[in-house]
Amino acid sequence: MINVQYSIFCYYPSVESKDSIALGILFYDKTNNICEFKTIKKLQKLKSFNDELDIDIVKLQLEAIKEEIQESVLRGNFDIKDYTKFYINELKFTEVVCMEINEEFQDFIDSCTKQYMPVIFD
């Protein structure tokens, strides 16, 4: 059994609205201290969701998050709940989901990515 935690990184064009689009999913294999941040690949599709969104800024933010997470994991002090709580307003992580899985971590990542970010598979 592998102890897995994950949270979906979403863009909310309006703080008042519940509408959102998943930009990435942060996966953490707590058992083996492995972390992966899968991000949306077709960033131009975000323009159809919000034509005022600066795709270059979003791309930089996603890259910065990936780097920050990897550095934290390498230092051995990564905590997904602590990390995700600092994102608020238009860009934020959903509540962390914790579960135990019997499948391979990468298979779990692939199935969740297909479920929560199908736009990358178009």
TrEMBL record:
Pfam families according to UniProt: DUF3037
Highest taxon of source: Bacteria
Annotated protein name in UniProt: DUF3037 domain-containing protein
Organism in which the protein naturally occurs: Clostridioides difficile
